[in-house]
Write the structure tokens for this entry.
Amino acid sequence: MEQTLKLAAKAGDPNAIAQLIAQALRSKKITARAVRTDTKLVILLSAEETPAHSQADFIKKGLAKIQPQGIKTVAVRAQNASSTRIAWAKQWYLLQPTQSPQPHSSPASPEASTIAPSAQPISRDQDVTSHSSALGQIAPLAGDVAQPADTGIWRDKNLLVMRRGAQLPDRCIKTNQPAQGKRYQAELRWLPWWYIFLGAISLFAAIFLSHRATLSVGMTERQLKKYKQSAFVGWILTALGVILCIAPLALPIDKYPEWVKWILILGLILLLIGPVISLIVARPVSIATIRGDFIWLRGVSKPYLNRLPEWQPARQQQAIKATVAQSIKPWHRWEARLFDSFISCLLAVVLLDIFWPSVIELTFSNQAHDIAFTAIILLLHAVLFEPILLCSWGTTPGKALLRIQVRQRNGQKLSYLQAVNRSLSVGVGGMALGIHPISLFTMLSGYRQLTTKGITTWDRVGGFTVSHQKVSVLRRSVIAALIGLFVFLGVVGTIVEESGYANHSIAQESIVNGDNFLNAAQYQDALEAYDDAIEIGANDAVTWGNRGFALHGLEQYEEALISYDKSIKIDANDALAWNARGNVLSDLGRYEEAVASYDRAIELEPHNAFIWTHRGLALGVLGKHEQALASLKTALDQDRNDAFIWFAHSNLLYKMGKYAEAQSAYQRAISLEPSLIDEINKVNGL
């Protein structure tokens, strides 16, 4: 069977070639398809994780051995199985066995002109850096260049440009002398300049998000020894700095001699110098920048660079674009989610203020309420706002501005349940519900997955694809301005919120002081404490009600009535506030209004004996004795052991001419509270 496939592949059958490639790459779980058009063969590689560039070199060697008939051009394209976009592409010319190599200098050689990279047009998706023949026959380059153009190494002024995985020649990168197999290997990191701001927030985050590259450069034994010695010296200085900083800790702080200060300063200096020598000075090369799969190195000697072909940005721009997966834009996704979160927050505040205003009022009371409010917003965003937009539009406001779409793998929009599933997965797995510092680690993990595997866990498990289109400068400027505005409002809100927490704490302290003064009948002090709390920001029904009690005790009835009215306006279902309002109206002689207040209090608390008693007293003053008597009897039904109620009952019966019943009620009051007779005598002047 295999022999049949090889024969078919040698005859140029694309299906046979695809089967041979699939068999060879089966262990890497890579599938292969091949399409032939005339003399061109296009091979498409697909896997759950984007296939590596090295697979193209593997296929190139295999086809060079098979030499399929009639095929002159081979293109290999790779994609992630969850995306329809091409992640990278390579193309080369395949020299047929009937061809005989011709000297590069022969202008009459038709084969030399056929296989020269400059003699054929380059397609939009091909990798021009791999534009060469299978046998390494290429057109001559200007100047004395020893390196062929297909090795993935170039010079760009005083920098060396290389593709990831490219093998640097066995020559010393510092002296250009033969390295004789000696190599310097290191993993280097590169941070864009603006990561400095991120590093100011979290050094770990900056390091985690940095770009890494593993390099193996040729070096002579002398140069290699020199840099190893420098690294050793750097680590020795670092260790010495640690010792000098820790050693003084063995001495009591109060017995530090003057020279210890200089020892500490020296230790800190060594801690700064040591790592610089080990990590920077002792590195023969450093990364200037990284763009996709291309790395720019500084520190390479000029003779070494002169042996390399010139980097041609205009021709090789497509190669860079091909290696930078256009479907992977983590910062665009983050900006879109940040923008959508702000929009959801504003919308949630409006809805809650309309349908559940008490939540908004409690938000500034303490941090626990603030956390609960944040959780509600996240929940609304995950199960309501974002899913509705994704299943109807296929995008959200932030994603629309940055031209991002979320689809199923078949290209259809997400269903509502799928959108909810994705939103919850992002909220929990990607954002950790906004819980710091856990959310920092989950976001960094998502970033790493996206940049290394091309897809996040929630999209891979859910079967979703995220596509991007080119974003204009105007769109980026608009969303940057809006996010900046939201961040500014957030900072202002945080300042106000923290101020609210502080003011709430001070107000609570004043309220506690006011309650203590009120219980001690120190009404003036209580009034001042409640006024301080209200001035700071307290605006609850109890505080206004207690302020009314203090004013009532000071016989400032009109002011007390205003306080009670404000308390009732905040909480209209407080029976005690309605009862207190009735009492102050009685003291103002407005008995009809007082009875109305008592009636409202009784609706709220029908079994409160004191409210029934106060209502009976007000009705008695109005001359409505029968209604007053009924009200007092209801009070006694609620509490038959209260001397004040029996005494009020006795007075009413006396006014009604029921002297015997009045006397009996009076005796009952005295039996419950003997000291009551002394109070009665004082009132009567006896």
